[in-house]
Every structure is written in C-alpha cells, then in structure tokens.
Amino acid sequence: MLIEDTPPSASQDQRRAGALLHLTSLPGPGPCGDLGMPARNYVDFLADCGISVWQMLPVGPTQRELSPYQTSSAHAGSWRLIALEPLVEQGWLQAEELAALQGSDEGKARALSLAYGRFQEAGDTSDRQGLERFVAEHSYWLEDWSLFWALRQEIGQCWWHWPDALRHRDPQDLAAARARLSAEIDFIVFEQYLFFSQWQTLRAYAEARGIRLFGDMPIFVAHDSAEVWARPQDFDLNPDGTTRVVAGVPPDYFSATGQRWGNPLYRWQEMVNDGFRFWIDRIRTQLRLFHMVRIDHFRGFEAYWEIPAGETYAIHGRWVKAPGAALFSRLNQYFGQIPLIAEDLGLITEEVEALRKRFRLPGMKVLQFAFSGGAANPYLPFHHDRDSVVYTGTHDNDTTLGWYESLSDAERAYVGEYLGRPAEPMPWPLVRCAFASRAHLAVVPMQDILGLDSAHRMNTPGTVDAKNWQWRFDWSSVPSDLPARMRRLVAIYGRLVS
C-alpha cells in the first residue's frame, strides 16, 4: 500500500523549476548586477527556459565583506542594486553622467546624489506623492533605518562605539541628530524609495512572464544594524551594546571547527512578551518583495548554537531551546499560511523536523549531499517528499561540476552508478536528477545551468575570501540553444507551468 506524504503547501501549488542567481551576479556595466534591464533580460531568459521561479539571496545593504547574510538592515534594500538607467528616463540623470559614473560604487553613489538633487528641483506631483506614500507604508522601519545610517556615516564607527546618549537612544539627542542630519536622512529615504519602486517594477514584469521571485531571509541580523541599535531589548547584549553571546553552528560539512557567524542572539522571551513584533515586521517586508521566502538556518528556531562572544571558534558552544512553535503560530495568526521554505540542512533532530512539519514548511534536499552513507542518506531522491525543494547545490556549495571533479574515483563511480551511468557530462545528470525528484520545486544554480567549474563558486563558508559573493555571468557564456534544451528538460519532468 502506498502511503502518501504531506500534501504540498500553499507555496508549492504545482511542480516547478527554479534557478538560483543573486541579483549582484547579473551581467551589466555597473560594479554589480542591479534591478534594471539586466534583471528583466534574465526574467525573459527564465521564461524561455520554462523556469518559473527565480531564487536570489538577501537584498539588504551589505557590509565590508559584501555578504548578503550580514546586512545593516533587515528591511532596507541595497543601494548598490538600484539601476541608474531608469533615472535617465525620469530626467534625474543625464546620459553622459550615466556613462561616466556607472562603472564603480563611488560613481553610482555620486549618480544617486545627482538624481536626488534633480528630484528635489524638478520632481513632479506624481513623483512626490509616490515618495510620500512610500514613507507612510514603510514607516515601521524606515525612520529607524534612515537615522541609523545617517549617524553611522557621520560617526564612522559601529553603533556600540557611538557617544553614550546616541548609543542608548536618548530622545533629546536623537531629535537633535534628526535635525542636524535632516538632509542626509532625506537622501537615504529617497534611495529606499528608488529601490522599492524599481523592485515593484521588476516584480510586476516577472509576474507578467509567469515568474515567481523567491527570497532568502537570514534567521539572525548583523550586530552593526539598525534593528539591533533600535531594539536592543530584543538581543542578548551587554549594557555597553557589545555581544554577550553570538550565533554560529558546531562542526559540520563545511568546517571542522564549526562556523562562528558573530551575530547577536535573540532574547526570545522579550519577543514572546511583545507578540513577536520584530518578526511580524520582517515578514511583512519580505512579502512586499517576494512571492515566497526561504528562512535560512531554520534549525535555530527549535534550538540555536550559543557561543560565548570571547570564543574565537564555534566549537565551544551549546544548544539552547527557542520558541519556534509560538513564533510560527503567531505569524500564521497574523498573516495566514505564509509561503515559507525552511532551510533545514545540517544537524537536524526529530524536534526540528516535527516543528517544520507542524507548520507545513517545505524543507530542502541538496543532491551534492546525497552520495555518502548509503541508501539511508535522506538527500537521495527516493527519500524526497513532494513538499520539499530539491537543489543540485546552493550558494554555499561548490558548483556541481567542481564538486564532481573533487570526488575520488570511487566516489565518482558510485555517483555514476546511482545515476545510471549517464553519457551526458556533469552537471547535466544531477540537473536531471533534481528535475525528476518528487519535490514540487527543483532549483538549479545558474552556474550549473551553464556547466561551470569551481572557479565560478559563489561562496566558501567559513572563509573571508575576496572572491566570495563576487561571481557574475556574461551573456556571451550562454549558448544560443540553452533555453530550448532547458525547456525540454523542464517539460519532460512535468515542471512546465502553462
């Protein structure tokens, strides 16, 4: 007798194929990909391939290492992702200025400043009303972010090194700062208006082509962020604002000493007491941006790895319980069933699995993890649930070709035997394996769609490598017949959405 697993959740309405590509990896003349024409061209490419989900990484303002998982705001968008071409169309930037300034972050910052000055001088009624509506709709985070970022730029140090009155948010000193920095604050608000306006344009374009945008929300936020400064009561900090304990994971697939992320941990009881306002606000912003959202490190909602802040490595930590059930009950009460995907990789206990299933959150299956440990390995395709998301690899993995080339001869032989000794070169056998899975969503990184090797890896966890987060593709590397070949695969495995 066949026993069916859990029916697909609301986020998994039918079989779909997805591609994983961060916005910064798009081609274009700027220092990184952005929300302009390159993003729309990529939507067209996905539609031609029959791919109906575009997954990307977090889109907040990054810090020095450019990691999208360490951002200065849980709500704001990165100004680096703002496209300059639409500002020329709006008359806020001249074509010759665009040509001169778009090639670097410094140039883009200058271009945005010029555009703001012209908006102030010549913005029409519709533009100004649009800005006013944006400010009203995003007031729950925008005021804290704009003041925080203006002060951060003025002082030039992390917020826990600010003068005591600003660090502890003395009302009189905050009012004085708002008055002193009013011009800077208004510009920061304008940048966010541009980001969210361009985002909605891209989202509408994607919807018209049948593409869903799939976001990624880190479980923790950066210490040097607007949220930790504005709501210190929600975080486990010392009185001076430094961290008492920090987040990470114990030794795992990626690191023998674990990973010390350094994010402040939550004071969960404070969050319970105020009805999880912090999380309601975060989800509200994510749903403005994306059709569906992956929650990174879902395991931490059942129990998280607490590391004393003075420890250099993550190995000296402990598991501490978290009120995940209370949180997701509150979120469902507020929003209804949310289209969330649980990143449930790593050391997953029965309690974590029960939490995920209780709230009908699809989990993740990564095929690069499948070929060790024999037939009991949960990542092998015959163990996949329908209500899950299967990947060849993620942004933290090597490319599939790079992974395969790094295996021993015996390991490659085992992979080949499992996959039926395919004639096709890697990564195509693993792409087919993902598409053939029972999982309702199969996601393939763009590097695998292009068949690229380890030189094109997006990130190596546990390292601060200058190459991390820098990868971009070029349209010249996309074969002209690739969309047709991809569309055929998507159709064969029942993932073509009409």
TrEMBL record:
Catalytic activity: Transfers a segment of a (1->4)-alpha-D-glucan to a new position in an acceptor, which may be glucose or a (1->4)-alpha-D-glucan
Gene3D superfamilies per the UniProt record, alphabetical: Glycosidases
Statement: the UniProt record of this protein carries the keyword S-adenosyl-L-methionine: no
Protein keywords: Carbohydrate metabolism, Glycosyltransferase, Transferase
SUPFAM superfamilies associated with the record: (Trans)glycosidases (SSF51445)
GO term, biological process aspect, one: carbohydrate metabolic process
UniProt EC number: 2.4.1.25
Domain of life: Bacteria
Record-level Gene Ontology MF annotations: 4-alpha-glucanotransferase activity
PANTHER family: 4-ALPHA-GLUCANOTRANSFERASE DPE1, CHLOROPLASTIC/AMYLOPLASTIC, 4-ALPHA-GLUCANOTRANSFERASE DPE1, CHLOROPLASTIC_AMYLOPLASTIC
Family: Belongs to the disproportionating enzyme family.
Listed name of the protein: 4-alpha-glucanotransferase
Organism, as annotated: Thioflavicoccus mobilis 8321
